[in-house]
Amino acid sequence: MKLVESNFLKINDMNVSVDFFLKKDCINLLRGANGVGKTTFIIKLLDISKKVSICFQHRLASINSTRVKDILKVLSENNSLDKKSLDQYLEIFNYSQFLDREVNELSGGENQVLKLILNLSSKKDILIFDEPAQYLDTTNLYLFCDALLKKYNSKTILIVEHNTSYLKNLPLEEILMVKQEGHIEIKNV
Ligand SMILES: Nc1ncnc2c1ncn2[C@@H]1O[C@H](COP(=O)(O)OP(=O)(O)O)[C@@H](O)[C@H]1O
Ligand SMILES: [Mg+2]
């Protein structure tokens, strides 16, 4: 799948040579040292492809007292989410209990699960998860893995993750982002 039109872009004034592919039928795993530019790179992909949806690393925040159900309503109405999938994931993650809660009052784990549900329910073809396991308890981590297991045949999935032990039962395609002398490389390994 061709994601990047030009194979050169810049992160923090460093040239990034992009020479990787995303596989279908497996989980693509992007690894690299802290601060190498993984998050910056995947955010750039949003400009490059309309097919991409991202579960961001940082918590979902709202400026006022927006409730979870308000966000779901807006995203459903603007056709970003598959309504049927959304209802399924709300049930799978036992999340209906949080619909009336204000987004800013969710705990780290509750906020993280909401971001996972939104991305899993996206209508886009390429789903990217930036450090999705953060804040998750064992139950939610298990539910997320199970969701990936059922999803990777129908969507292209890219996960940015350091500790990948929870993914060990899934077929993985590893992509590495490394700083070489004066430039950054992204390549399959
Ligand atoms: N908002 C920002 N303003 C300035 N520099 C940033 C910002 N976000 C990230 N950076 C810098 O860009 C580099 C890459 O960051 P990031 O993409 O978050 O790395 P990674 O996700 O691989 O840990 C780092 O040096 C980081 O300090
Ligand atoms: Mg990051």
CATH secondary-structure class = Alpha Beta
For the sheet with most strands, the description reads:
8 strands, mixed
Number of helices: 5
Based on the structure, what is the oligomeric state of the protein chains? Answer: single chain
Shape summary:
globular
- Mean of all residue-level pLDDT scores: 92
Computed structural class = alpha/beta
Order of helices and strands: EEEHEHHHEHEEE
CATH topology: Rossmann fold
Query: In angstroms, what is the radius of gyration?
Result: 17 Å
Strand order of the largest sheet: 1-2-8-7-3-6-5-4
Q: Which architecture would the CATH scheme give at its second level?
A: 3-Layer(aba) Sandwich
CATH superfamily: P-loop containing nucleotide triphosphate hydrolases
Describe the structure.
With 189 residues, the chain is α/β, with parallel strands linked by helices. It has one domain (8-188): P-loop containing nucleotide triphosphate hydrolases (Rossmann fold). Helix content is 31%, strand content 23%. The protein is built from 5 helices and 8 strands. It has an 8-stranded mixed sheet, sandwiched between helices. It is globular, with a radius of gyration of 17 Å. 28% of the residues are buried. Adenosine-5'-diphosphate binds next to helix 1.
